[in-house]
Design goal:
7 helices, cell membrane, DoxX-like_oxidoreductase, transmembrane helix, membrane, elongated, mainly alpha
């Protein structure tokens, strides 16, 4: 076995799965939560610019702009908090993955490199769960 292979094996076994899952949960929650905060004034009052963007630029089929604005804004607040806590992690990650797909298909098709950066951790969390350091594991939900 080469020195590089030994180093790789040592590193791979030294990083616990719970740490990797926590890092992915925190990393993917941040951009969504920060995006949600740009859409509101105060705690959860949608800003006029949010209403404008959903009416004029973020046209999502099958949803009225007002409904889409509220759904997206509330989801960008609630789902990342759930991910950080590791509570209902798989459904929260699925919700953010669906939001990512809607953004990719209908809002910003050219943003695929960023959307892949979001999709990777979300798919991992859906497939593997939140890890041992989570409320899901503590409450025996996962």
């Amino acid at each position: 076995m080469t020195a590089l292979a030994r180093l790789h094996r040592r590193f791979a076994t030294a990083v616990p799965e719970w740490f990797l899952a926590l890092l992915l949960r925190l990393g993917v929650a941040a951009p969504f939560f920060m995006s949600g905060r740009t859409k509101v004034e105060g705690w959860l009052t949608l800003s006029p610019s949010t209403h404008y963007l959903f009416a004029e630029e973020y046209r999502v089929p099958l949803l009225a702009p007002e409904t889409a604005a509220y759904l997206a804004t509330y989801a960008e607040h609630l789902l990342p908090i759930l991910l950080v806590l590791g509570l209902l992690t798989r459904p929260a990650a699925l919700g953010l993955l669906l939001m990512t797909l809607v953004i990719q298909i209908f809002v910003a098709p050219g943003g695929w490199p960023t959307h892949l950066l979001w999709a990777g951790p979300l798919v991992y969390l859906i497939a593997r769960g939140p890890g041992a350091l989570s409320l899901d594991r503590t409450l025996h939900i996962d």
